[in-house]
Amino acid sequence: MILDAANKTNLFIDNNACRSGICGSCRVKLLSGHVDMAVLDALTEQEKANGYILACQAKIRADVTVDAGTARVARTDGRHICRPMTSRLRRGEAD
Prior knowledge:
Blueprint: H1 2-8, E1 27-32, E2 35-36, H2 45-49, E3 52-54, E4 59-60, E5 64-74, E6 80-89
Antiparallel strand pairs: 1-3, 1-5, 2-4, 5-6
């Protein structure tokens, strides 16, 4: 699953640990690649048409690039910065 691969590569994808495809908190945009999903309940038809997927349900079928929005990142000086979270994940990283 993309969520597992993201965790292994330190890409933060928001999720509330439901991992069943019904809450939608792990929604990310698929920029390239191919995934399969068994459950799409949390996505609207418009979101599906716009390329959004559920990271907890998306099985990587080819290398993918996802846009996970922006993440708040803690710095060593105690300040926080926001940065875009786009990452390429390879098939097999979630295995």
